[in-house]
Amino acid sequence: MTTSHPIIYYDIASKQPSRTFAPNPWKIRLALNYKGLPYKTQWTNMPDIHSLREGLGIPANRTLPDGTPYHTLPAIQDSATGKLEGDSFAIALYLDSQYPETPRLFRPNTIGLTAAFNQQVDGIFTKHTGLSTKMPFDASIEEEVKAMFVKRVGASKWEDLLPSPEERAKDLVSLEAALEELAKAYQHTGGTTDWVWRARGTATEQKQVPGREEAGVLLDGGEPVYADFIVGAWVKMFEACMADEDWEKMRGWQGGLWGRVADYMERFAEMK
Ligand SMILES: N[C@@H](CCC(=O)N[C@@H](CS)C(=O)NCC(=O)O)C(=O)O
C-alpha cells in the first residue's frame, strides 16, 4: 500500500533553487517520482553528510584511497516502516519490495543484471567526471567543498584538479567513444567493445559509424526500468555540471541519443 507517511529523501544540496545534480541521488529521485511515492526531500550540504548519516545511524558505504570510510547520499528514511537505507541500489530494491503496487523498477529476475549494469555505467561516467567543471554548490560552502576534494586526493590546490584544455579535449573524445559502446545497448546490438583499438568520435582522426538507426530513449522500450534511471541519472549529472559547450556536444552524440535521454527524464525530475 502506498502510505500517506512521506519518505524522507536525503539529497545533496545545490545552490538555490535546490535541485538534484549528483548521479546517485538522481537515480533515486527519478525512481521515487516514477513510482509516485509520497516523499519529502531533506537537502544536505556536502560537508554535513557525515554527521547526518552518523546521527541517523547509517554506516559509511565508501572508502577513500587511504582506507578511510566516508559517507554519501542518497539515503532514505521511511516513516511508514522505520526503514533507513543509505545506498542507491539498496534503496531501489527496498522501494520495489515495500511498495509492490507502484510501477516496478526491476522486471522479474533482472536484479543481478541491473547491478552489473550499474557498475558498468558508473565506471564509464566516473572515469570522465573531470568534465563536470561547474558543480552547482552554494557559494557559502564552495570553498569548504573544494578543500574536501583537494584533501581527499592529496592535491595542494583546487586548480590542480581541473583538467587542462588538452586533457578536457581528450576526455571528451574518450567519453564519446565510451558512449558509442553504451548506445549499442539501446539498439540491442553490443558485442565486444572495440573502441580500445578503434576509437570512434568526432576527433579528426576518428570516424562516426555510418547509417546508425535512431536509438530509442529507453533500453527496452515500453515503461522505464531502474537501468534507464542509472543512465538517465548520469546524463542529468553531466547536463547540470558540464561546461555548456561540452554538454551541447554530448547532447548531439550518437544521433542525439543523450539529449533525448536527458529530455525524457524531465518527466521524473520534480524536486519534491
Ligand atoms: N554506493 C553509493 C554511492 C553514493 C555516492 O557516491 N554518492 C555521492 C554523490 S553521487 C556522494 O554522496 N558523495 C559525497 C562526497 O563525495 O563527499 C550509492 O549508490 O548510493
UniProtKB/TrEMBL annotation:
Top-rank taxon: Eukaryota
Query: Where are the coiled-coil regions?
Result: none
Look up the signal peptide feature and give its range.
none
Instruction: Report the InterPro entries cross-referenced here.
Output: Glutathione_S-Trfase_N, GST_UstS-like_C, Thioredoxin-like_sf
CDD domains xrefs: GST_N_etherase_LigE (cd03038)
Database matches in SUPFAM superfamilies: Thioredoxin-like
Please report the stretch or stretches of sequence annotated as the GST N-terminal domain: 12-103
Which named protein is this? GST N-terminal domain-containing protein
- Species annotation: Meristemomyces frigidus
